[in-house]
Amino acid sequence: MAAKRPARRSWLFKSEPGTYSIDDLARDGRTSWEGVRNYQARNLLRDELQVGDPVLFYHSSAKPLAIVGLARVVRSGYPDPSAADPSSEHHDPAQDPAVPRWYTVDLEFVAKFAEPVTRDALLARPELAGMMLLQRGSRLSVQPVTDAEWRCVLGLAGLDPRRL
DNA sequence: GCCAACGTTGGC
DNA sequence: GCCAACGTTGGC
Question: Helix or strand or coil: residue A95?
C-alpha cells in the first residue's frame, strides 16, 4: 500500500484590494501574508496550511465583492516578522519576542480570473450554501474550502479544476 | 454610513 | 470565570 499523504486542502484568503489586491500579488509574484491578528486564522496559518495548497483570492469591502484569482502556498507557517517590528503597523508590543504569537505563510500568484466570480454569483449557487464565506457574520480572513466548493468556484470562473 | 456579528479586554 | 464595554470586520 502506498504511503498515505496528507490530503491537500484548499483555502480562501480575504483581502481588501486597497490594502493588497490580486494585481499586487500578480506584480509581486510572491508575498508574505503578514498582519493576520486573529487566533483562529493564526492557528490555520501555523498548523494547517501546507506547501502546495491552493488558495482562492477574495476581494472584501470591494466593488465588486468577488473571488478574483488563484494563489498557492509556497512556504508554510512561520513567525510573522511584522509582529516584532516596532515600525510595522502590525507590530504587537505585547508579544514576547521569545514566543512568537502570530504566524504567516508565503503565497505565490497563480492566476487572475478573466472575470471575477462575484459574491452574487456565489450566492446564487445552491451547492455553495454552506460555504464559510457566505455565512453571515463570517469574518475569518483565512478559511478552509471544501473540494466541492473549490470545483464549483473554478467552474464559475470558466476553469477546469482537473487541469490545475 | 449603518449595524450585526464576533473577538478581545478588563473590572470585579 | 463572568460579563459588560469596546473595537473590528465587512456586507449592505
Answer: coil
Please name the residue whose C-alpha is nearest to the C1' of nucleotide C10: A61
- Closest residue (CA) to C1' of nucleotide B8 is A38
Q: Which alpha helices (DSSP H) does chain A contain, by range?
A: 22-28, 39-43, 119-123, 147-156
Q: Looking at strand C, which nucleotides approach a protein CB closer than 7 A?
A: 8-12
The Å distance, CA of A116 to C1' of C3, is 43
A15 touches strand C (CB under 7 A): no
Confirm if A157 and A67 have CB atoms less than 8 A apart: yes
Cβ of residue A61 lies below 7 Å from strand C: yes
pLDDT digits (tens, 9 = 90+) for A118-136: 999 999 999 999 999 999 8
Helical (H) or strand (E) element with A68: strand A66-79
Distance A3 CA to B6 C1' (A): 41
d(CA A32, CA A121): 30
* Domains of chain A, start order: 10-163 (3.10.590.10)
Q: What is the tens place of the pLDDT at every residue in A77-123?
A: 999 998 888 888 888 888 887 889 999 999 999 999 999 999 999 99
Burial zone of A163 (CB within 10 Å; 0-12 exposed, 13-18 middle, 19+ buried): exposed
